[in-house]
Amino acid sequence: MRMSEALAGTVAQIAPVVLLVIIVEIAGNRDRMVDQFRDAGRSVALTRSMARRDSLTPTQRARAQRAITDQRRNVGAVGWLLFYLAVSAAVAVLLLDAEWRAIQWLADPHAGPAPQDALFCTRVIGFAFLRIVMGPIISLLQPLVDGLAQLLPGMSSTSRLQRLLDRSEPGS
Length: 172
Description:
With 172 residues, the protein is mainly α. It has one domain (5-167). The protein is built from 4 helices and no strands. The chain has helices at 5-28, 30-51, 58-107, 115-167. The chain is elongated. It starts with a helix and ends in a 5-residue tail after the last helix.
């Protein structure tokens, strides 16, 4: 692979647009991030206040169990958000580097084929496109995991309830 005017020009035009798409997506998820940290703070505060007590009533025990479950879920969600932001930041830095290399190559009237720069630029643009596609897919994972966490225990309860109903049918 060799750097050409067409490749360098394409990278110089596409990199800022892809970077803008990533930044707009991050900004669009800002409220989700704020809500996630607010929810995490509430469950942490509840957990801390209940942990200071010597004993808990049955109602308090149920609330404490929900708070622990929420806190674990929030830790997982915050982990995904941090991963998402780290990947986005890495892609942004790589895009800026690819943009700089392409512009430098275009500005140099004696630039050679620069195969390393050409390979770097094409890989970065490909990785950035992958990041754009993966952003929405990753954001769907947390609701999917939360939904499965609620549905799967319910399935075993449904089976147990069905067995109970089968055993206690009238006339049996």
